[in-house]
Amino acid sequence: MNYAFDFGVIWDNAGVLLAGAWLTFKISLLAITFGLIIGIIGAAFRTSENRILDGIALAYVEIIRNTPYLIQLFFIFFGLPNLGLKLSAEQAAIFSLAVNFGAYSTEIVRAGVQSIAKGQIEAGLAIGFKKLAVFRYIVLPPALANVYPALIGQVILAVLFTSVVSQIAAEDLTFAGDYLNARTFRSFEIYFTIALIYLAIVWLIKLLSFLVERRFFEFAKYRR
Amino acid sequence: MDEFTVSRIFINLLIAAKWTVILSLIAFIGGGIVGAAITLMRISSNKWLRGISWAYIEFFQGTPLLLQLFLAFFGLSVAFGINLSPLQAATLALTGFTSAFLADIWRGSIEALPQGQWEAGSAIGFGYFKQLQLIILPQAVRLSVAPTVGFLVQVIKGTSLASIIGFTELSRAATQINNVTLQSLLIFSLAGVIYFLLCYPLSTWSQHLERKLSYKT
Questions:
Q1: Is residue B1 part of a domain?
Q2: Cα(A202)–Cα(A198) distance, integer angstroms
């Protein structure tokens, strides 16, 4: 058979794709921000001397890391209403992705925290810092600098995961693709273009992260 | 109509989980074979082979697995007249996905070895493949075992997306039972438990291997 490729369908519907890309961006940004906060708190729990806090954080990490994101999303979107908590598709998307990213970043930040020499913490306590202040000002900045590449890798995976939220009809980039596919049947052109848009986003994140690392985490290099 | 008791739901999910395991094995074996070829291309001295394998890895690592499944299932059919069943399309996409990540892990393990290991092999008269087979691979395999086992967990979780193109495995069975019973909290919890039982032992094994096999620095 002879198939005539027609990428015109992409240009004709650029508005739909752009709207989808915007929601993908919004979901990613909010979920990663909330997820990183969860991850920092989780890492504080994981490294605390309190065994109950450590246990709670460990259970959270293991449950999330050993189940698929699709099931977590369905559990939150379809399951939680059984308990009376009803979220919109967009809220469920952000919430589930934040919980997912939080678990992975907990382990990444924990590795960073444990890479900090004990003497740094003792020095902080010795000059009269409270425990929380030691964590915030002495441990956290170099810890994040040490695990920055791993964290960016996880950010990229989280952005790629957002495509799954199309399955609860959150109108992201992939959902825009499904919508156009159902109307035009130009499946190959549409999904291939969308895949390339995701790839472009991933490259943009890699570029930005390189610039951010040079600007903010340069100090980590002199310490070694 | 049949009664959906908790135990009946669980048994039905377990039956469907068989296909999750089968699809994971297919993806892991297929991905391993293709991944080995991509690894060799990636470390080759020919810049064309390196370029092609680089683009392959960038594509499969830089685009969502869901889009790869859509391209295999809908895209190939419409544009090239290649009609794949959900299982065939899932096999194709998951093999691409798995091979790209495995190739990246394995290349990393090979490049982590000092250059002197290659040079020593060359100095005692080994050709390229002899160096690879007798000197490099035995050490690289040791380095890569833990992350490879760890990645198997990602493959198992990745197979859940095959449900979206209509392949009946654990996640799709859960969705179908949910459509009938609407006991969403229970059903997706049970599905999560089964995935956890499949993945957790592998995660723990991977961490154990990492501690045991890592070179002391």
A1: no
A2: 6
Q: How far does B120 lie from chain A, in Å, by closest CA?
A: 32
Which of B9, B21, B24, B67 to mutate to probe the A interface, most A CBs <10 Å?
B67
Does the CB of B21 have a partner CB in chain A at under 8 Å?
no
Structural domain boundaries, residue A79:
32-187+198-223
Domain total in chain B: 1
> What's the pLDDT at A222?
54
Instruction: Show which of residues 101-160 on chain A sit within 8 Å of chain B, judged by CB atoms.
Output: 156, 160
Q: ipTM of this predicted complex?
A: 0.92
A208 close contact with B: CB closer than 8 A: no
* B154 confidence band (pLDDT: 50, 70, 90): very high
**Nearest CB to A198 within list B62, B171, B187:** B62
What CATH code is carried by the domain that includes residue A119?
A: 1.10.3720.10
Instruction: DSSP letter for A83, please.
Output: G
Tokens of B63: 């685009």
Q: Within a domain: residue A146?
A: yes
Using the Cβ of A59 and the Cβ atoms of chain B, whether some distance falls under 8 Å is answered with no
Convert the pLDDT of each residue in A202-211 to its tens digit. 999 999 999 9
- Say what the pTM is: 0.91
Give me the pLDDT at residue B217, please: 44
Provide the pLDDT for residue A195: 96
Does residue A170 lie within any of the structural domains?
yes
CATH assignment of the domain containing B65? 1.10.3720.10
Q: Does A164 touch chain B (CB under 8 A)?
A: yes
In a domain, A158, yes or no: yes
B164 and A CB contact within 8 Å: yes
Give the count of domains, chain A: 1
